[in-house]
Amino acid sequence: MFTGIDEVDWASLRHAYGSAADVPELLRGLAAEDPAVRAGALDGMYGAVHHQGRVYDATLACVPFLLALAAREEVAERGGLLELLISVGRDGGPGEAAVRAGAEVFAALVGDQDRDVRRVAAEAAVRFLGPPARVSRLLRQRIAVERDDRVLLALTEGLGLFVHRHPDHSTEALDLLLTLGTPPYDPGLRLAALGQLAGCAPELLPADLVPTVVGLLGERSERRRSDVRARDGVDCPDTLTGRLRRLRPSDEEGARLVRTLHTALGGRPSERIALLEGQLTCPDATDRCNGVWTAAGLFREWRGDHSALVALVGEQLGTDSGRLRDAASSVLGELFHLAAPAADHLYALVIARSDLWTQRWERGAPTLGSALKALAHSGDPRAAPVLADVLARPVVPDDLGRVIVHLGRSAAPLAPALRYRLGRVPLDSPGTADRAVPLLSALSALGDREAVPEVLRLVRGTPDGTRSGQRVVESALRALDVFGVDAEGVVPALRGLLESDYAGVAAGALWSVEGDASAVLPSLLRELESPDGRRRRVAADVLARVGAPARVASDGLARMAGAECAQERVAGARALWRVTADAPRVLPVLRSAWTGQPGVRGAVAACLVDMGTAGASLRDLVETELAAPRRHLARSGGHGSRDVLADEQLLAVCREVLAAGGDTCGGETAGGGATGDGER
Questions:
Q1: Degrees (nearest 5) of the Cα angle 45, 51, 52?
Q2: Does the chain have fewer CB atoms within 10 Å around its N or its C terminus?
């Protein structure tokens, strides 16, 4: 296994943390008898030798030894070594060449005695072994004799991968997939075959795909119920670890099968919706739970009228299954106003289960329970009285303030309690920012001018020199900006910060209070020259509000409009328009930012609202966006709790752009109604 290992000049090779002199010890550790030593060695391989998927010269030097280890039956947990080799060679380049050079090993391992080795070796053989005819024959022969369901699933996935990689040699593989997708094969295997066909040959799918899949899910669930370990709630204590475990599918294999099928269907949302409706009405709670998580991916990626599907997710809140209930409330919490069709179900759960209003952890402060948070995120005013009860408790969740911003004026009665809590936040605690910033956000959203004394206390008393303190002071200054009131002590406090690191936000608040350009321009001009791009953007935003009296800043804003960073370009261009009304100078900047960086489209659209008819030449961008079925920040299979909200806000601003020009864009647009109050 280690022949020649001492002949390699490991010290001259490099991995993520420098010299690879420690690699021989890691390689030998992979063959150790002690499981802890093996686990530590594998962690070291991923942590240093193949750090974050990178291939170093030390990684390449390890490949022959990893292949030799994987070929020896006495080495434990060889499946993990094969997964490491696949990762090294997956992305092409020198890593793939190194693994291919020893790929003959995989031909033997496809028939290994260890089922975990056989399972992973199937993918390795398809990726690295040749020629295609040989690989196809190897898969066919193995499928004919394999009896382990998990290995058969891996072989089925291998067939799909083979078709993608060798389309000119795919006939036999496709025939095998068609065969595996029919009786008498196991329902799970048939689902896997359908998923692979959907990805590589959708024209071969059965016409009755949705009822077929739903029926197979039911058959598979009947078999799975006999395994008591799969029952909901087992080994899931009410702790952080337990809740995170509940938020993972209890049936990860089933989740993967359905996810593969949905991913393959991709841009066919109508079929995906029909399939999800079938999943969410299955008799088995685990199948419905998988459906809830899969629906989350659809909501994040595709626009459209999802109200019926959202209502079905809401119906899962009435279940006795804690795992399913947590999944449904978590997914609904990411939908914000789009969760409205499930609001009655959320409210019913919130009222019935006051023990779920907050979530306590082994360490740290409590947080709002997911159902109450989702109800508030949806903008439902019925959440306000419940949040008032939570605010009256001795310990208040730190995230409560963040959800109040989505309730609009219905949360106004909460202002006194929020002020009270803000006034008692310690000024020098490590948790000050986590407690104060959400409360400041809530009071700002409510426009509660009576909170000025509590806000000023934070501005004056928060210690300098820490990132946490900076967050608190900036949030407090932004609150004063929103309030815009010349209360006692406000102006002196703001003027005193015009020479500080908070100059931009302080100038914005001072402009809001006094409206005196001469008082804020010197500080803003200095901020435009700051090496910190964030500070430049803050200054540009304030200059945009000042408008024409800030023409002296036009050169600095023009430089920003030519910056490399898209956020900075848009901030500079928007301010330049507000200051100079020079549309020909601004419009090309906005167009290039929109097309090159989807994340700034909301800011560009807001600028077009400002420009009115002067921005008419960019209306094509807005019309195209409103007609697009896919969310502008969509990442297939990705996660982002704010992606749906950001997209819905973009759509709302796009409609404002067209409405300002008297164009209704031909009727209905993708994405539903306008958003409520929320963070941009």
A1: 130
A2: C
Query: Hey, what are 572's tokens?
Result: 């500079």
Low-confidence ranges of the chain (pLDDT < 50): 228-249, 637-638, 662-680
What stretch of H or E contains 178? Answer: helix 171-180
Dihedral (C-alpha) 655, 661, 667, 669: value to the nearest 10 degrees? Answer: -20
As given in the structure block, the two tokens for residue 199 are 């990805």
Between CA 261 and CA 89 the distance in angstroms is 26
What Cα–Cα distance (Å) separates residue 51 from each residue in 29, 133, 155, 186?
A: 18, 35, 28, 39
**What is the distance between the alpha carbons of residues 123 and 610, in angstroms, rounded to a whole number?**
55
| Rounded distance between C-alpha atoms, residue 632 and residue 648, angstroms | 10
Show the tokens assigned to 489: 């002590």
- What DSSP element (H or E) covers 368? strand 367-368
For 392, the token pair is 């009256």
Contacts of 393 (CB under 8 A, 6+ apart): 358
Q: Which SS3 state, helix, strand or coil, does residue 64 take?
A: helix
Report pTM: 0.81
Q: Which pLDDT score, from 0 to 100, does residue 235 have?
A: 46
Structure tokens that stand for 77 in this block: 């947990």
If 0-12 CB within 10 Å is exposed, 13-18 middle and 19+ buried, where does residue 230 land?
middle
Between CA 349 and CA 352 the distance in angstroms is 5
pLDDT, tens digit (0-9, with 9 covering 90-100), for 244-276: 444 444 577 888 888 888 888 887 888 899 999
* d(C-alpha 113, C-alpha 130), whole Å: 23
Cβ 115 vs Cβ 142: under 8 Å: no
CB hemisphere CA count around 299 (13 angstroms): 34
- CA atoms within 13 Å, Cβ hemisphere of 145: 11
CA-based end-to-end distance of the chain: 57
Q: Which residues of 399-420 are buried (b: 16+ CB within 10 A; e: fewer)?
A: ebbbbbbbbbebbeebbebbbe
